[in-house]
Amino acid sequence: MTDRAKPLPQLADVKAYVPGEAPKSCGGPSYKLASNENPLGASPKAKAVYAEMASKLEIYPDGTAKDLKAAIARKHGLDVSRLVVGAGSDEIFLMLARAYLGPGDESISTEHAFAIYAIIAQQQGAKAVEVPEKNFTADVDAILKAVTPRTKIVWLANPNNPTGTYLPYDEVKRLHAGLPSQVLLVLDGAYAEFVRKNDYASGIELASQSDNVVMTRTFSKLYGLAGLRVGWGYAPAHVVDAIERVRMPFNVNLPAQAVAMAALEDEAFVEASLAHNDSELERLVREVRALGLEVIDGVGNFCVVKFPEMKGKPAAEALAYLKDRGVTVRGLGGYRMPNHLRISVGTVAGNNAALKLLTEFLDG
Ligand SMILES: *Cc1c(COP(=O)(O)O)cnc(C)c1O
Fold first, then answer.
1. Which residue minimizes the CA distance to atom 3 of ligand 1?
2. For 246-288, how does the pLDDT look when each residue is reduced to its tens digit (9 = 90+)?
3. Domain boundary among 226, 245, 265
4. Is 267 helix (H, G, I), strand (E, B) or coil?
5. Enclosing domain of residue 272
6. Which among 235, 265, 295 is the end of a domain?
7. Residue 167: inside a domain, yes or no?
8. Measured in angstroms, how far is the CA atom of residue 38 from the centroid of ligand 1?
9. d(CA 92, CA 114)
10. Does residue 159 contact residue 152 with C-beta atoms inside 8 Å?
């Protein structure tokens, strides 16, 4: 046998991320409730800007994303020099991993955490340590117990996906207080805007005041721009400096920068999206519970439903039943939750379709 090119040895352990499935067409309308996308689409103003960008495709984007960063800083009252932007928040996690994780290092995430954290740690050759949760919620004591001299990053999605649960700000602060100063705490606020709880905060303040906290946000969920790939992070100056050293020069593309700015300014669309999520999440949870199913108390733009193992109505069959009839939701076997399905809040019609099919499935 001739010698073949060998990828880095750590890549053998990497399990590919499994994205939400597009629905198949079954003649009638079909709905994708599998990726927590905005059911109202994107802001009409953002779409108009995207169309205008067609005449500028030959031009390189501004690699420093100066205008977009200025707009984010203005909106949230931030120091522009501490902002980083990425092709989705995923790219910011990747840049953090490239800057801080190597073979022999460890990063910590929790039992049912967003899958990307472990994947990128492994890509770097670092160990992805996963610690138990309590009641599908991150457990600060378990995280702190897992810290070793090799720990470089603690990842916390707050609220988390796929569970939808959150840690109150006091608990986040207790976690931060318990971490050694050389460990970075990454607070992933992908769903921050959806949370309606007085004891919640996304961590902007903590990221402003500490030397080891990074907070990330995304345009993929509330702003409905998942397809464009734009996220941002707020970090201490020394972390921004490290990220700039691994960042590709034009990581956020030209239409993405312009469209994200337009989306940020369209408050009417944001408010309509939030109002829709508030009422439809509440309705979805209430109606699923009325079917006799358990639902995890979540605060994002999705609900997580438990199917009874014993009564011949397992989650995997519900997933297939809905999929065959034009509605895709997310199976959570890969998240150690084989009996749960995650249903994104859809349009009223999409949610109705999911509820009708669930009712039929349980009756059948
Ligand atoms: C959807 C999601 C993101 C956002 O990813 P993008 O790369 O910004 O699209 C980040 N974290 C969590 C937990 C998510 O569910």
1. 190
2. 999 999 999 999 999 999 999 999 999 999 999 999 999 999 9
3. 265
4. helix
5. 14-42+268-363
6. 265
7. yes
8. 13
9. 14
10. no
